[in-house]
Amino acid sequence: MTTTAADSAPVPGPALPDEDGAPAGAAPAATAPAGPAPAGSAPEPADENAWLEDIYGEEQLAWVTEQNSRTEDLLEDAAYASLESSILEVLDSTDRIAMVGKRGDWYYNFWKDGNNPKGLWRRTSWESYCTDAPEWDVLLDVDALAAAEGEEWVFHGATFLRPAAGEPYRRALLALSPDGGDANRYREFDVDSRTFVDPAAGGFDLPTAKGNVSWLDADTLLVSSTADGLPKTASSYARTGVTLKRGGTLAGSPRIFDVPEQHMMAVVAHDSTPGFERTFAVDYIDFFNRTNLVLRDGEWVAIDVPTDVNVSAHRQWLLFRPQQDWSVDGATYPAGSLLAADFEDYLAGARSLSVLFTPDARTSLQSWSWTRNFLLLNLLQDVSSEIRVLDPSLPGASGDGCAWASTPLDACPPLHDVTAYAVDDEDDAAADGGAGDDFWLVATGFTTPSTLLRGTLERGEPGTAGVVSRHAAVKSSPSFFSDADYEVQQHFAVSEDGTRVPYFQVAAHNLPLDGQNPTQLSGYGGFEVSRTPAYSGTVGRAWLERRTAGLPGDGGAAPHSRGGVYVVANIRGGGEYGPSWHRAALKENRHKAYQDFAAVARDLISRGVTSPERLGCVGGSNGGLLVGNMLTRYPELFGAVSCGVPLLDMRRYTRLSAGHSWIAEYGDPDDPAQWEFIRTFSPYHLLKDGVEYPETFIWTATSDDRVGPVQARKMAARMLAMGIPNVWFHEALEGGHAGASDNRQAAALQARSQHFLWKALAGGTP
Predict the structure, then answer these.
(1) DSSP β-bridge partners for residue 137
(2) Beta-sheet pairing, 120-124 with 448-459
(3) Fewer Cβ neighbours under 10 Å: the N or C end of the chain?
(4) Which portions of the chain have biased composition (kind: Low complexity) (predicted)?
(5) What was the pLDDT predicted at 549?
């Protein structure tokens, strides 16, 4: 099991079991205006755009079509067409690394390219994968399936049934979304026959809904779902878990687990690891608090920890990562540490905890992954990767603070992101010819194309210290731009309260510090999500290598052409320095994230990298809320804002799509006391007449069932009605929260955002 923070959008974190039972997402979007606030709530400001909350209404979609046409007329010129084509070439490149996951003897991959826009689910052998041209066994052609069934299917993964000992993996549940949103239809698939198992013959086929599905045995599923009339929480997640027998229905299945309506979500899942078979349930109270339970003798037994301590199970071990300082039997363990205990001993009442990692002011734990005999820790030190290998069979060295023997993995260059995770921890150990202690390394940097390496961990010879690691490159991505022409620097801005805020700057060597460089500033700052170095052919081509027609030089010098500067800010609210960095910008302290981002903007300006008329910012989802606050709170710092799939109406966000589930992050706007601080970062309510706002592009997707398109629509409509110039809106019909369900849609989305920023910042404004 690999445990990590949420991805780049507000969705629940991972449940306690491994990937056989991980939760699958958030709640479906409402298709009609959300209801009024409960009695006793804070007053709702007048909202002239509430009519746009009917997502699929005819009049509302007509408004969307009109705005789309207006925006496309502005942006889709010859330069846009060339840019879109260049981005699509990157996304469709057949030289990209085909990332794989091992099941049994096969290595599985999902692949999209120009000939297969919806993708191929396929597999190959290890020997073939290592060649330059692997022979792929195609299991499912999603484009052919969509054409045959008349449904725009988007593939969202496969969950395999563990076979009997010695047998190959054969049956899987495939998650297919009808529009790219979070709601999936789960269908049983036979990889040998390459066909779906006919429901008439007992094959599982679950209705499209949000939820979680896990194999209990060959004829039984554990399901959390809102389909077939099963109850929802106030967040519209599944409120109950059921056992679904082959041939049965969700509505008629026994309910085995329920959570209160005001809690966020129920999850049930089975860990089928041989010798450690266990069934778990998770009561997600809110985004950061949960109760973990294990089924014993027909009864749910809670794992006794505070609700803000993340728990994961692996074989005989329980691991704990507290979100706040945790005191146990007289000892206090700091937030962000990692602790271990024997599973059975802990359930029996013992509280002997082994310390595996303790954070410091510069270093945080990002994720961990078990091989057969070792534990890999992925750390960040000032937002650069560090990896340690722990051996549970040996005690730690005196004074190193780790209860288990710890060895650094020498694979992490500065200012790079390197992640280690197990290939297949349930295979035999390497000494027996298996891959149990093999691991993947994925290494990337802003100017370093991604590389996939594979390694093996072994204990050193008696008398030697630590774990021996052997790893070598397997695949490398090509360069999509002249990356050697650019350098990566890390700087630190100082926020209003004195906090040092790191940021990465990617720019040409010998960058002229004359304030005239078109600069794109990106950030997120929420849900403990870390922004780390990553190679992007899209950013390289669409921003770094794009050239101005000639901007005035410093001191009246002749105009000269230059490329763009790309900046990533590691502001509070994220996870770059662990839970404390995240919690520093929660709820009433949300403004600190925005102060951090503004401090980075000011630092770029004061250093001469750029100037307000050349500085733009971009963000999506929670990052859309971030740049919405730059637009309304710090308009003087920016020349352009690209705001994607955003939260913007923070008075009604809890009643739009999956918004109720994020109260733990932002606060409850129905509570009058909390609305007083939430209103200070609600961009929809911060717009004022007489303010010179940056040029603004707001983009979203109709099928986004996580944040939804409503808030983006209303913000654009209000700005247009106020007569604010240079406000543009675009809404894709498909793609869910990602805004795109295939590479062509993704290329169009990215090209619009990049082209808008370039036109606004590089001399020729819209």
Answers:
(1) 123
(2) unpaired
(3) C
(4) 22-44
(5) 80
